[in-house]
Amino acid sequence: MRRSLLALGLLAACTLVPAFAQSTGTQPALPAWDQLTPAQRELLIAPTRDRWNREPERRQQFLDFAQRWQSLPPDQRRNARRGMQRWESMTPQQRAEARAVYHATRSMGRDARRAFMDNWRNMSPQQRADWVKAHPAPEGSSALPPRRGPPHDRGH
Prior knowledge:
The chain is an all-alpha fold. It is 68% helix and 0% strand. The protein is built from 7 helices and no strands.
């Protein structure tokens, strides 16, 4: 369990380090974990601890995620980080669109999904908004696919 919490802390660090480097204007060589000060470690771990305490019903999900994250190859970790950053930068409207499109296309075959997305790209913003209003994702749905084993075994 401690190892999984450490993985969650490191994930938090991965999201905080670029912001720290950008705020200083340079890319300083950052120390290894063992060389961080207690205050720096606390800064990195605090968001994970707060979320762990705030959402006890999701603790197993957090641990599962940390274990999956450790099993990902480096290129898939980079892709996942980019996806998380992209999701975090979306507006609520963009997230609703992403959820609706995912929900509509998740059971489609490759050709049908490609045709849908070609059509989606040709829609005006108003047409997209109207489509999302007519085809909302179910309440509480996630834009992420259901887990079916380790991500690197899913054939993506």
